[in-house]
Amino acid sequence: MLFPIVWLKIWFGYFAMLVMVTVVIPTITTRLNPVGGTTCTGGISQNLPTPPFRPGPWLEAIVALGPFVQLILMPVLWSHKQRQVKRKIMGEKEEAEEKNPLDPEAKTTIFGRKLPCLAKVLGLFIGSIDLSLRMIKTVSFGTINLQAFFFPAPFYDFYSAKLLIKFLQVDVRKLAITATQADSYMKFCTEQMLNFWTLGFYGRCCKGRTNYNRWLDRHLVWEGGTPPGYNNQFRVFDDILTCCQKLKMIGLNALGGCLSIIPILGALWPVAQFAQWYRYKLDLRNMKFGGSQPEFIKEFTACNYIYKYYTVGICGLCGMPLKRYVDTCIRLGAPKFDEAMAAEDKEADAGSPDDVPVAVEMQPSATAAPAAAVAEKV
Q1: Which residues contact 54 (CB under 8 A, 6 or more apart)?
Q2: What is this structure's pTM?
Q3: Nearest alpha carbon to residue 222 among 371, 372, 88
Q4: Helix (H) or strand (E) run with residue 175 in it
Q5: pLDDT, tens only, 224-264
Q6: Phi/psi at 85 (5° precision)
Q7: Does the structure show a pLDDT above 80 at 298?
Q8: Cα–Cα distance between 291 and 222 in angstroms, integer?
Q9: How far is CA 260 from the centre of its chain?
């Protein structure tokens, strides 16, 4: 087999989940909470009241649909991974994916990415369902985790990640992702299965191994080879704000910064534009491209941004031209090797050897690495 053996164990783990939600849990709930049962008190038989809520067969079927579909999909993706690795071993050329050409009018495109309508519609639909499942997980402190049963989630997550990389442009260069849909899908299934059996403790105690966004960043490379002086340390997806940054944004939103999402109305309150400007600063500060820390030029001040908001953005009605202006103010700093990031990645590799990305050079390179050196780990 040309794919990790642990994937077979994940399949059996999901099979056990299916048995648990279709046989074990319904049997236990039926015995503990019978419907229409009787009890004897003082020699008098009394009917038990019907409980206010009892999961019916339709709810059990919906919950069981997730692991059932995933049990079928896993072998399909395994076979695809098997053929892909076999072609690479035999030296056969893979079908080249459609690449988004460079934008000659833009040097860097990070915030001004124009995604297709299909991605926006899917994001709204799947994102709303995923948000509700996350809220259930948060309210129950991780003990009720239904994300493992929502099978479209891993496919959309990887699809949206590839779209982001496709339209991303950094200093007139493109990025590529070495992971496949099978890798991403099994990463999702592994985490969700372990969270199911540990009641969420795996996700809380092993964040270094379960961070899906960090896993995506570690599978990013420069398209066509590493440029001179750069390396392959990226932080594109794992740009989550720190606790201090979140508190600052909460304070700004409480003062009216949340009005920035509403055109015209947000233009009546300057705090809304300041919150937008500050969020761009925070997001860019948390990113890294090939070891380079991007930064805004000195001219990107709050006053200049507010001025562009009213002129270029037309009071929030034209968001894309405003985002393109923000991209023109981005400059890349001098690349350097991040020892702290490398230590975190090394720890994650030791804990999850099957998730180790392709072998790419980690130290800054003086010469561009050939694209053939980026070969997928078998």
Answers
A1: 29, 33, 35
A2: 0.76
A3: 371
A4: strand 175-177
A5: 889 888 998 999 998 778 888 889 889 988 888 888 888 88
A6: -70, -35
A7: yes
A8: 12
A9: 25
